[in-house]
Amino acid sequence: MSRRIALSVLALVAALLVLAVVPLGLTMAEREQTLFRTEAASVTRSIASAAEEHLSDGRSDASARRLIARVRGRGGCACVYDAAGRPVIGSPCPEPVADGTSTMVASVLAHRGPTTHEDGRWLATAVPVGESAQPVGVALSVRSADPPHDRILAMWGRLASIGAGGLVAALLVATALARWVGRPLRTLDEAARRLGEGALDARAPAPTGPGEVRRLATTFNTMAARTEVLIHGHRAVVADVSHQLRTPLAALRLRLDLLAADADAVAAADLTDAQGEIARLTRLVDGLLAVARAEHAVPRPVKVRVDRLVAERRAAWAPVARAGGVRLTADCSPGLTAFLGADDLEQVLDNLIANSLDAVPEHGRVLITGRRRGEAVELRVVDHGPGMSRAARDAAFRRFGPSASTGSGLGLAIVHRLVTANGGTAELLDTPGGGLTAALSLPVRSGTRGTRTGPGLHDF
Fold first, then answer.
1. Using one digit for the tens of pLDDT, what is the confidence trace for 416-426?
2. DSSP for 387-402?
3. In what helix (H) or strand (E) does residue 23 lie, and over which residues does it extend?
4. Burial of residue 95, with CB atoms counted within 10 A of its CB: 0-12 exposed, 13-18 middle, 19 or more buried
5. CA-CA 20 to 30 A from 307: which of 2, 127, 231, 358?
6. Residue 357 in domain
7. Per-residue pLDDT band at 307 (split at 50, 70, 90)
């Protein structure tokens, strides 16, 4: 952003300088050329006036010769011609300066009035001596265009120096402005990054820069402080609830176990059913606590070897699959990596594999695949069980979704939060030939912000 601010200010100043300096330079150059032509015409008329006294009244030509000598001293030449076109005062200009001067003299003697010729190197001016209608001669002066050209070049040089100085000053001001605005924003961005990565004590330092940035830093610090209080409070509530619920449930289960030991067959069967409900309630409490932690914590993504983790989870679940008569296989590209929170992918795979093994009948198959797809890792858990309807798939990632009939209904909700919290996506698809495919897209680069997830609960 600092570079864009500096370049924008510099471009604006450069445009303003161009719009101001170029027209000024063109105007001054035109003015210099006009002054040069006006001065040349004035000198020629002065020579004509001095020569008229000599040609008409027979007086001395000394005044005209002094003016001609002054023109020659400035690098030009001048000459006075009589009515027949013969030089009478001074000498004709040498070649190539004299090119076209005879035509100019003839034009003036033909009663056409003063004439001027300019070729970029020389400016020739011819005016009649006496009345234009009946001239007694012609005064001609030729002056070099180098002096005005030099003055124009010097003028452009000064303007260019002014423009360059303005650009340098603009660059310094733009750089200072960009740093003034950009430095506190970079500091604020770093504090926001640290907060997003889980450093709840991250704060922006004493705000500097523009008033809007200072207000933004103050607002961020207030938000970060409130977020820290809320998360710490939520964690305390989760810990208290966990303790307060688990303890009586464990005590209740122990008392049921003691009662079942001394009960008759009918009472023992009822107590066994009650113990099953206690176990189900315990899993439900664990699941709710897991989802609550998943919604109120912050991830710190780390590089995870997806292929290795898939192989480990397959090996861990292989005994369960064999006991159910299900073939559990994996096919992942070697070296496959993704960025997720620590242990998040393990919880995701455990939930998905558990769901698939519960759904697949005996002699069925569960396949885990992993491939790199552009900027993401595509991980799939494919089973050939009964599958789900479209409506059931749409609701499966919500708490107590369709899988609640066989479990707590929280496993897929935890999977969805774990994956999306790390910047990925999760969806359920039909398996060709029947069954359900859980398709995950996981980020391959760090930097994704999201909600950290807590321990998972298998959906069985």
1. 888 887 888 99
2. ---HHHHHHTTSTT-G
3. helix 2-57
4. exposed
5. 358
6. yes
7. very high
Are 312 and 238 found together in one domain? no
Global pTM? 0.47
Would residue 173 count as lying in a domain?
A: no
Does some domain include residue 95?
yes
pLDDT reported for residue 198: 67
Residue 366: per-residue pLDDT? 93
Give the position of tokens 């005062």: 89
Whole-angstrom Cα distance, residue 107 to residue 316? 113
What residues make up the domain containing 376? 298-443
DSSP string, 348-412: HHHHHHHHHHHHSPTT-EEEEEEEEETTEEEEEEEE-SS---HHHHHHTTSTT-GGGGTS-S-HH
Helix axes 211-262, 146-196, angle to 10 degrees: 20
In this structure, is residue 232 part of a structural domain? yes
Sole residue written with tokens 């027209």: 23
* For the chain, percent of residues with pLDDT exceeding 70: 87
Residues 15, 115, single domain; the answer is yes
Pair 80, 137: CB distance under 8 Å = yes
Are 338 and 435 contained in the same domain? yes
Dump the DSSP string for 208-248.
-SSHHHHHHHHHHHHHHHHHHHHHHHHHHHHHHHHHHHHHH
Instruction: State the pairing for strand pair 327-332/365-373.
Output: parallel
Please write the tens of the pLDDT for every residue from 197-234.
Answer: 667 788 888 767 778 888 888 888 888 888 888 877 77
Rounded to an integer, the average pLDDT of 75-82 is 89
**Of residues 294 and 269, more confidently modeled:** 269
Instruction: Identify how many contiguous H helices and E strands the chain contains and give both numbers.
Output: 10, 12
Q: Which residues contact 208 (CB under 8 A, 6 or more apart)?
A: 180, 183, 184, 214
Give the mean pLDDT of the chain: 81
Residue owning tokens 């640290």 = 194
The number of folded domains in the chain is 3
Distance from C-alpha of 81 to C-alpha of 99, rounded to nearest angstrom: 16
Say yes or no: 132 and 57 in one domain: yes
338's enclosing H/E stretch is strand 337-340
Amino acid at 36: F
- DSSP symbol at 94: P
